[in-house]
C-alpha cells in the first residue's frame, strides 16, 4: 500500500521530494491533474469536484492515505471532503496545518487553545483561490491570537512554472512581493502558501530581504507525515513509487526534472 500525493500539477513534487528523503522506505503514488491545472483561478465547487475525482483515483490505486500537496485544494476542498465525502477507512490530509503549527511553535497535532506567539506580522503568498478561501487565517485563528496576516494573490506564477518559463515566474514573484510590501512594509515572516513556490524561494527571499523568515512547506509536511505514520502504523506498505498524470505523460515527465532533479516517468491516469 502506498501513500497518495496529489497536486493540480507539478508543485506537489516539492513535497514528494522532501517526503521521499525523510521516508525513503515508503512507496508513494503521485497524481498530477495537469489537464485541469492551474486550480488557483477556479471556483471552490470546481476545485472540490476535481480534487475528489483525483483523490478517488488514488484510493483506486490502493492508497488509504492521500496528502493534498496543493494549498488550493487544501483551502477550497479539504474541509468539505472530510465532512461530507470521505469513504470509510480512508484519510485525506492537507498541507496548511503543519506550516501553521511550525509558525505558531506547536508540536505536531497540538490542539490546545490559541495563544500569543512571537510572530505578529505575516505575509501570505498563495493562489487567488487560496487567498479568497481565507482558510489560512481560519486555521491560524484556531492556534494563535494577535497575528496580522496580509495575503497576496500571486496570479500567473503557477502557469509560468508549469510552462517552465522561470524568467516570467521571477518577474511575477518580484511584482507580487512589491504589491505585498505596499500593504505590509515590514513582515516578520512570509509563507509560501503554494507548493509550486519553493522553486522560487530564492527570489522570494531576495525580494523580501534577509530579515524576513521565509516558511516553505515541503520539509514541514515531511516531518509531520513521518510523525503521523509513526502514530498510525500499517498505513504505508512496501513497493515502488508511481507517477500519474491526466495530461500528456511525456510532456509532464520532461517538465518534472527541475522539481525532482532527476528523471521520473509519468504514465496516463
Ligand atoms: N501547487 C498548488 C498549490 O499549492 C497550485 C495551485 C494551482 O494549480 O493553481 O496551491
Q: What percent strand?
A: 15-25%
Give the helix proportion (percent range). Answer: 40-55%
* Total helical elements: 13
Rounded mean pLDDT score: 94
Oligomer: single chain
Rg, Å, rounded: 17 Å
List the ligand species: D-glutamic acid
Please state the structural category.
Answer: alpha/beta
Please write the string of helix (H) and strand (E) elements: EHEHEHHEHEEHHEEHHEHEHEHHE
Strand order in the sheet with the most strands: 4-3-1-2-11-12
Uncertain segments are: none
The count of strands amounts to 12
**Distance from first to last alpha carbon:** 18 Å
Largest sheet: 6 strands, parallel
Shape: globular
Keywords:
6-stranded parallel β-sheet; 269 residues; binds D-glutamic acid; 4-stranded parallel β-sheet; alpha/beta; globular; 44% helix; single chain
Helices and strands in order:
Blueprint: E1 3-7, H1 12-22, E2 28-32, H2 44-60, E3 65-68, H3 71-76, H4 78-84, E4 91-93, H5 96-103, E5 115-116, E6 121-126, H6 128-133, H7 135-141, E7 144-145, E8 148-153, H8 157-162, H9 166-183, E9 189-192, H10 201-208, E10 213-215, H11 218-231, E11 242-245, H12 249-255, H13 257-260, E12 267-268
Parallel strand pairs: 1-2, 1-3, 2-11, 3-4, 5-7, 6-8, 6-9, 9-10, 11-12
Helix pairs in contact: 1-11, 9-10
The structure holds D-glutamic acid.
Amino acid at each position: 500500500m502506498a501513500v497518495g500525493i496529489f497536486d493540480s500539477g507539478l508543485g506537489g513534487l516539492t513535497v514528494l521530494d522532501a517526503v521521499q528523503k525523510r521516508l525513503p522506505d515508503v512507496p508513494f503514488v503521485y497524481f498530477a491533474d495537469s489537464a485541469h491545472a492551474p486550480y488557483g483561478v477556479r471556483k471552490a465547487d470546481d476545485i472540490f469536484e476535481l480534487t475528489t475525482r483525483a483523490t478517488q483515483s488514488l484510493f483506486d490505486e490502493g492508497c488509504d492515505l492521500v496528502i493534498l500537496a496543493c494549498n488550493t485544494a487544501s483551502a477550497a476542498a479539504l474541509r468539505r471532503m472530510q465532512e461530507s465525502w470521505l469513504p470509510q477507512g480512508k484519510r485525506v490530509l492537507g498541507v496548511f496545518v503543519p506550516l501553521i503549527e511550525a509558525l505558531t511553535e506547536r508540536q505536531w497535532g497540538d490542539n490546545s487553545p490559541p495563544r500569543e506567539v512571537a510572530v505578529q506580522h505575516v505575509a501570505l503568498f498563495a493562489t487567488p483561490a487560496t487567498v479568497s478561501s481565507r482558510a489560512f487565517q481560519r486555521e491560524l485563528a484556531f492556534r494563535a491570537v494577535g497575528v496580522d496576516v496580509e495575503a497576496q494573490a500571486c496570479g500567473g506564477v503557477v502557469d509560468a512554472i508549469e510552462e517552465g518559463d522561470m524568467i516570467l515566474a521571477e518577474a511575477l514573484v518580484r511584482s507580487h512581493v512589491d504589491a505585498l510590501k505596499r500593504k505590509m512594509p515590514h513582515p516578520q515572516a512570509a509563507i509560501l502558501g503554494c507548493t509550486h513556490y519553493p522553486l522560487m524561494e530564492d527570489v522570494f527571499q531576495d525580494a523580501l530581504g534577509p530579515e524576513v523568515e521565509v516558511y516553505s512547506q515541503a520539509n514541514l509536511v515531511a516531518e509531520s507525515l513521518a510523525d503521523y505514520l509513526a502514530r498510525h502504523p500499517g498505513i504505508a506498505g512496501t513497493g515502488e513509487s508511481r507517477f500519474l498524470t491526466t495530461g500528456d505523460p511525456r510532456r509532464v515527465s520532461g517538465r518534472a526534472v527541475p522539481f525532482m532533479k532527476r528523471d521520473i516517468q509519468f504514465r496516463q491516469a
